[in-house]
Amino acid sequence: MTEPSSEPAAPEQDPLAVETELPSSLMTVNLGPSHPAMHGTVRLVVTLDGETIVEAVPEIGFLHRGFSKSSEQSTWHQVLPYTDRLNYVSPVLNNVGYIMGVEKLASVKPTERAEYLRVLAGEISRICDHLTCVGAIGLELGAFTVFLYAIEARELLWDRISELCGARVTVSWTRIGGVATDLPPGWEEKLRDCLPRVLELTDEIDALLTRNRIFVDRTRNIGVISAEEAVDWGFTGPCLRACGVNYDVRKAHPYSVYDRMDFEVPLGSRGDTYDRYILRLQEIRQSHRIVLQCLEQLPPGPIIIDDWRYALPPKKDVFTSIEGVMAHFKLIMEGMLIPKGEVYVYTEGANGELGFHIVSNGKGKPYAIQVRGPGLPILSALPRLIKGHAIADLIPIFDSINMIGGEVEQ
Amino acid sequence: MAQAFIELLREKLPDAVVSSHAEKGGDDVVTVKRERLVEAMAFLRNDPATDFKLLRQIAGVDLLTYQTESTGGASLAGREGPAYEPRKKSPVEPRFQVAYNLYSITKKKSLRVRVELRSEDLRVPTVTSLWRTADWWERYIFDMFGVQFEGHPNLQRLLMYPEFVGHPLRKDYPVRKRQPLVPELDFPDLVRGPGPGPGGAGVPMSQTHVGRQNVDPTTYD
Amino acid sequence: MSAPAKMVKVAIDGVEVEADARDNLIEAARRIGTAIPYFCYHPRLSIAGQCRMCLVETSDAPGRLVPGCQVRVKEGLKVVTNSPAVKENQRGCMEFHLINHPVDCAICDQSGECKLQDYYMEYDHQPTRIRTYKLLKPKREVFGPLVVYDAERCIMCTRCVRFMDEVAREPQLAVVERGSHSLIATFPGQPLASKYSGNTVDICPVGALLNRDFRFQSRVWFVDQGPSICTGCSNGCNVYAESRGDRIYRLLPRRNEEVNQVWMCDDGRLAYHASDEKRALWARIGKGEASQSVGPRIALERAVQLLKPLSGRGATGSLGVSISAQCTNEEAAAAFLLGGQLGVARYFLGGNPPGDQDDFLIRGDKNPNTRGVQLAAQAFGVKLEEAAGLDEVKALIGFRTEGLPVEKLQRLELFVALAQNEDAATAESEVTLPLQSVYEQECSLVNWYGRLQRTWQAVPAQRGDSAPGWKWAAGILEGLGAPSGLKSAGDAFDAFAQRSVHLAGLTFAEIPDDGYTLEGELPSEWPARAPRPQPGSPSIRSPRPDLRLEEETSGGAR
Hints:
The complex is a heterotrimer.
Chain A: E1 27-31, E2 43-49, E3 52-59, H1 67-73, H2 80-84, H3 91-106, H4 112-140, H5 144-165, E4 174-175, E5 178-179, H6 187-209, H7 213-219, H8 227-232, H9 238-241, H10 249-252, H11 273-297, H12 315-320, H13 322-333, E6 341-349, E7 352-360, E8 368-372, H14 375-380, H15 382-386, H16 391-401, H17 405-409
Antiparallel strand pairs in A: 1-2, 2-3, 4-5, 6-7, 7-8
Helix pairs in contact in A: 3-4, 4-5, 4-11, 4-16, 5-6, 6-11, 11-16
Chain B: H1 3-12, E1 17-22, E2 28-32, H2 37-46, E3 54-62, H3 76-79, E4 96-104, E5 109-117, E6 123-125, H4 134-145, E7 148-150
Parallel strand pairs in B: 2-5, 6-7
Antiparallel strand pairs in B: 1-2, 3-4, 4-5
Chain C: E1 7-12, E2 15-20, H1 25-31, E3 55-58, E4 66-67, E5 78-80, H2 84-98, H3 115-123, E6 141-142, E7 147-149, H4 159-166, E8 173-176, E9 183-186, H5 198-203, E10 209-211, E11 224-229, E12 238-244, E13 247-253, H6 266-269, H7 273-276, E14 283-285, E15 292-294, H8 296-307, E16 319-324, H9 329-342, E17 346-350, H10 370-380, E18 384-385, E19 395-399, H11 406-410, E20 414-419, E21 431-434, E22 444-446, E23 451-454, H12 469-479, H13 489-499, E24 516-518, E25 539-540
Parallel strand pairs in C: 1-5, 16-17, 16-19, 17-18, 19-20, 20-21, 24-25
Antiparallel strand pairs in C: 1-2, 3-4, 3-5, 6-7, 7-10, 8-9, 11-12, 12-13, 14-15, 14-21, 22-23, 23-24
Helix pairs in contact in C: 2-3, 8-12, 9-10, 9-12, 9-13
């Protein structure tokens, strides 16, 4: 103490005390757009103070493929493959949402069997989406087995989807007035066989994660948002329901045949990552209930309406009568002439309210379509969710919001 | 379905509302004046009778080719006109519409609030003070249509890269338009391959053209 | 049409419309955008009333349907076009028309612009009710050099018959047989050889009459349509050029009441072949065996290198410039600017030789811009000579090579050609610079009676290295050290208009879409049925009427 020191002498300094105030500066780290933790191509420029996130600026646009502009150049049915690629983890729900908007503009009601089939396939897609999200949360927190269980369950369901719709992901399955294909023979039995296995795997995941000390510590009270703030940020779907707000489009404004289905809407209370995870698990079980009810209530009948202004005529008419070939020709080349109008149609996508703002000018091509991807408002709130947390907490928060690049960036 | 709320808005702010109508499919639309937009939106959001706390989406529509866009080949009847009257083309104004899709979770009602803009005056006051989600939606509309949102904290492009020229969702933006190449940043320690640009092998681009006869590569452009 | 039209008020589907007293119900409904379907009616032909598709209800005839094409409007008339009776008639008419119609959509050219298809989807979208065979009739009958007829597809609207009778004034078509066996036919031994036969293809609502030149070439929904002007003769008919990729597939007439109404002649329809075939696409230096393709920069350098020593030799100079009457105004202006810089004293006028003419749309002068080139020459103060004078120059810059005698070119020391097509003349050129055709650029042309019309870029594709003539001339001028400042067709046109008393400083952007009549230049003699400018259409009167060009009616190129 009597030695001269270079530092300014501080009063009552204990030489054995550890320096608690390290001179440090903020560090800016770039996460993405190609990054294992970034689901899809999102860039996060994160400013860190040690390990604490001080500020985060997301940059998106890497997956913008011009959905709106492309759909203005395609006929109404040619837009369906574009919608597949919006939320590419649950594509049937995108198809259903879009086609419902077109049917509203055309004042066309699909057949009853088609309505049930849409709900059936839609709920299977929803289960697949939630399985992907839950599996990813587990994977990125170190529980690789959980991921494999989720993928196994998802594979079983995607096999059913590909048997029904013809493709695993790029389904383009709905049509104006109905759906494209009916249940193949034996499909119902196969579905009933694989659903218990899916539930079994879900229960396994539940058992592995829900009361797991590590998992709970890493997700409890992480990324908390209050209900009011969530609504202000535009949250919908599981992220909003985790805050306790009971808004599910299937219950609030039942569309298709959801009013005939008996299911519950799970609600969280804290609005943290853990609640978002639990919610998704429970929604899988509720969707499973809906799937079984659909199978029971499924009526026989045609899967598409018989109106040649919107639905293609059967091939025997196309090849033998002038009316059939003209209808087929005009529908393919010019598109269905959907009457003028503007509609905002909203359905419950896997991540929240999936909305399509569709404008028609009476022609065979949409005039304007803009997608309300549920992930966009949630992603815009990401800086708010992660501020103040450690950088390691970024991972579970980002997983739990389940941002799908396709629907955010169109 | 939300007609009652439109009526409430009309009562409270009578000169803000320009018109309202119900679209097929059950949508209710009210058009308000651009100058009174923030007032009207604040009323719709904060008043307990309407309680539109969820701003779902801000959508934009460019009406430039609404009447003239067609599909398929040219229809003959479109070319036949009366023998004694010349055709006149009238400009389309107001050209842009910005539509705010609102939802009230407590009242379970949807409403669309629309603002009409002329192409020479593309400005709208921001509603980010009312809904935080409007931030990115307004950036999206700015990016795609070029509408300036006055008072926005950070009005930059959202999806397109900063050097992008033009506004893609406008109807006069051609689908196959090529963008100018963004000039390369010149990093001195970068090793490059063939092609034009600093430090490259300088192979001229015209070597790739086909169809020329008797080309002498030493003198060719 | 000097007196203002008398207007009457009618109500169509409850909407009040102010219609011209000459309107029939179809035209009155068209004013508010209500479409009454029709097959046999055409606004410019006599009324047939055969197809029965336009039947509507009116207050004058309650409980009955009247044909909308025949009934004229009168004050206070109420018309209903969407009642159940009208709809049932429309549906029934469509069904009748389709009973014997062959299942040809997959191979019929009219697909995509067929009235049967459009009206079927809109007014009758029911499956067929017939369970028997359709009537078989002759197919693929060649009527004439441009037209082929398919009798099964014909719905006997007789538009073609009436057109040939009334508009083309050559009644070469008639209806033969009776009932469902009716056909359209030409007189035995006399083909449909009228020069206007292509218009019957345009007005045929179905795929019965088809254009042999366009048949099976492309589907109509693949082609881009762009407005332009026909380059076949000096009438300057407004056209649409339909192209896909870098090839034009057909020309269709565009409506311009004062030039061609909605018709065009067959030669004009085939005029696009010059833009597609044997094009000079790449710049070339050297003649014969020594010729090689080069890039534009090197070609320009060589041209400047060859022209520089010959420039500025005054009136006895040996350099001449030849301008074809096919050149656009911008090319002519740039040519004169270039000639001025090089000190050229001899200017020659080339062009296609004259051909036959008639009293309707076909002019004898087979060049689209003779008038324009002459006006440009007057504006720049030069005199245009005949090609015979080529003996007296030793070097020549040719702006478009039509009409240049090849023997005279062979005797020249130097020939620099700006050419659209490769022909015998470009084989003699030391430097060939490829030109864009009229369909590929924005330009302006002046037709036989002095109407200034502009084109747009109708073919979007860039073909080879071809560029507008003014651009090459600007390149040469820059190489000579005298930059011209020409950056667009508008600049070249403005350079012309500022010097011309006839155009009095008009700018390119100000040219109306439909054209601008130069009033001082209207000929006194007019072919009997050629469309003429209407009073009130945009026109400009020269402040110096004493500077009129000599009268050209429909005579030759010079």
